């Protein structure tokens, strides 16, 4: 024993390295073991759903999964197959997986959407937007007026696999363990609790509308935020570095525009959640043909007088237009989106500090900002304006746009604990 101790003392560098390596290896193995326990517990819970008896005349519920394998730096497919797929299959769902890693698949979605009971989006913010956009392009848009009755009632599940998963904050409890976060989200789909989420329709002149469940950002914080990854070599200082170096441009950075907007709208009473039983195929085909051949339904004219519109000239360091999905209130009586116009008189030190805060919560509205509640707005940019919008963390060319709120347009599955928390907060 003394000989061993003497050897270890004489080679203390190797000994220290070996101890560190063993500690790291032990910790890694323990983490893997804990992850496997979480997966097993989730699968056992899913099995209880799969063991439920259903009448022989009732078909299996069909789920269409839109999986983005490129999410999470290409790890999304493995994460889905290890953590979510076993739970879905054990629950008794008839699962069809569609990969969203190539373009031109929009035409195939019509048939899939016609024969599905629920949609599951597996990826990040970009995948959510991509799926909504593809459905729009395939003329089965969940948001279009002529078929919204058929499709906007299809519940949507979200399995967070991407780098940014903003909806997770609303739908599921916070978790530092990725495996637990994914299994919780998948189990929430089986439990069947849903919440209605608002959608923004963003339309440029002669452009296809873009749909957002979080919102639009235009300004200096967004521009600096997209460059953070360039400074990866600075480690934890990369965020501050990106914002600090952006102050070397023309300062102060002012974004000028004209904003015209309408105030909040009164919320109509919510329809009952019970879904009618699925009609036979021939009935659905007949309804679709009748809808196709009949003249488009007449929209109820909304009396909007010129006096209802408010006009505003603005100069800001950043403008954001966001849904209320992050602060969901299931009992509110008005529908609106939040427009935040940040003051352009900001020091370089404040800009760098707020930039770090914005990376954590992009739509936070700092003190001293002008906050407006609106149901619809038109953003006019000066001619020759360059730069980009961030729409649900995806980049689009900056241009004049009309933003319209589509209230409670989509139903997303959520953890029952989160729904209870929302209702409790509303009562208080």
TrEMBL record:
All residue ranges annotated as the DAGKc domain in the record: 58-206
CDD domains assigned to the protein according to its UniProt record, in alphabetical order: GATase1
Enzyme class: transferase
Pathway membership: Lipid metabolism; glycerolipid metabolism
Pfam families documented for this protein: AGK_C, DAGK_cat
Record keywords: ATP-binding, Kinase, Lipid metabolism, Membrane, Mitochondrion, Mitochondrion inner membrane, Nucleotide-binding, Transferase
Keyword check for Nucleotide-binding: yes
Topology within the bilayer: Peripheral membrane protein
EC number(s) on file: 2.7.1.107, 2.7.1.138, 2.7.1.94
Subcellular location: Mitochondrion inner membrane; Mitochondrion intermembrane space
Gene Ontology terms for molecular function: acylglycerol kinase activity; ATP binding; ATP-dependent diacylglycerol kinase activity; ceramide kinase activity
InterPro entries xrefs: AGK_C (IPR045579), ATP-NAD_kinase_N (IPR017438), Diacylglycerol_kinase_cat_dom (IPR001206), Lipid_Phosphate_FormReg (IPR050187), NAD/diacylglycerol_kinase_sf (IPR016064)
Keyword Zinc in record: no
Primary localization: mitochondrion
Gene Ontology biological process terms, A to Z: ceramide biosynthetic process; glycerolipid metabolic process; sphingosine biosynthetic process
Cofactor: Mg(2+)
Catalysis: reaction(s): a 1-acyl-sn-glycerol + ATP = a 1-acyl-sn-glycero-3-phosphate + ADP + H(+); 1-(9Z-octadecenoyl)-sn-glycerol + ATP = 1-(9Z-octadecenoyl)-sn-glycero-3-phosphate + ADP + H(+); a monoacylglycerol + ATP = a monoacyl-sn-glycero-3-phosphate + ADP + H(+); 2-(5Z,8Z,11Z,14Z-eicosatetraenoyl)-glycerol + ATP = 2-(5Z,8Z,11Z,14Z-eicosatetraenoyl)-sn-glycero-3-phosphate + ADP + H(+)
Family from the record: Belongs to the AGK family.
Entry protein name: Acylglycerol kinase, mitochondrial
């Amino acid at each position: 024993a003394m000989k061993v101790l003497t050897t270890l003392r004489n080679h203390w560098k190797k000994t220290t390295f070996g101890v560190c390596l063993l500690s790291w290896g032990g910790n890694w193995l323990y983490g893997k073991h804990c992850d496997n326990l979480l997966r097993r517990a989730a699968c056992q819970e899913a099995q209880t759903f799969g063991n439920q008896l259903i009448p022989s005349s009732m078909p299996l519920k069909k789920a269409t999964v839109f999986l983005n394998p490129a999410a999470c730096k290409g790890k999304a497919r493995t994460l889905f197959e290890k953590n979510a797929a076993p739970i879905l299959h054990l629950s008794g769902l008839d699962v069809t997986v569609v990969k969203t890693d190539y373009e031109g698949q929009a035409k195939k979605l019509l048939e899939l959407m016609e024969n599905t009971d629920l949609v599951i989006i597996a990826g990040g913010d970009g995948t959510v937007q991509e799926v909504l956009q593809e459905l729009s392009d395939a003329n089965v848009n969940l948001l279009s007026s002529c078929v919204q009755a058929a499709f906007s009632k299809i519940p949507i599940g979200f399995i967070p696999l991407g780098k940014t998963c903003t909806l997770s904050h609303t739908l599921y409890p916070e978790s530092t363990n990725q495996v637990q976060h994914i299994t919780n989200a998948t189990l929430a789909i089986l439990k069947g609790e849903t919440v209605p989420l608002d959608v923004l329709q963003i339309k440029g002149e002669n452009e296809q509308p873009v749909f957002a469940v979080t919102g639009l950002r235009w300004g200096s914080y967004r521009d600096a935020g997209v460059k953070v990854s360039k400074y990866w070599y600075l480690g934890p200082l990369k965020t501050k570095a990106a914002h600090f170096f952006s102050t070397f441009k023309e300062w102060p950075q002012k974004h000028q525009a004209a904003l015209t907007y309408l105030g909040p709208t009164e919320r109509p009473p919510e329809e009952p959640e019970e879904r009618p039983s699925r009609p036979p195929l021939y009935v659905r085909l007949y309804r679709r043909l009748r809808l196709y051949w009949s003249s488009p339904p007449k929209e109820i004219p909304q009396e909007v007088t010129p006096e209802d519109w408010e006009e505003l000239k603005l100069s800001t360091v950043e403008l954001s237009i966001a849904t209320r999905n992050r602060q969901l209130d299931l009992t509110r009586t008005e529908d609106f989106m939040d427009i935040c116009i940040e003051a352009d008189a900001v020091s370089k030190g404040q800009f760098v500090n707020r930039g770090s805060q914005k990376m954590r919560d992009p739509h936070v509205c700092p003190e001293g900002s002008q906050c407006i509640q609106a149901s619809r707005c038109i953003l006019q940019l000066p001619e020759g304006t360059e730069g980009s919008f961030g729409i649900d963390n995806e980049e689009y060319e900056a241009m004049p746009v009309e933003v319209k709120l589509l209230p409670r347009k989509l139903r997303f599955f959520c953890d029952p604990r989160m729904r209870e928390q929302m209702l409790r907060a509303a009562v208080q």
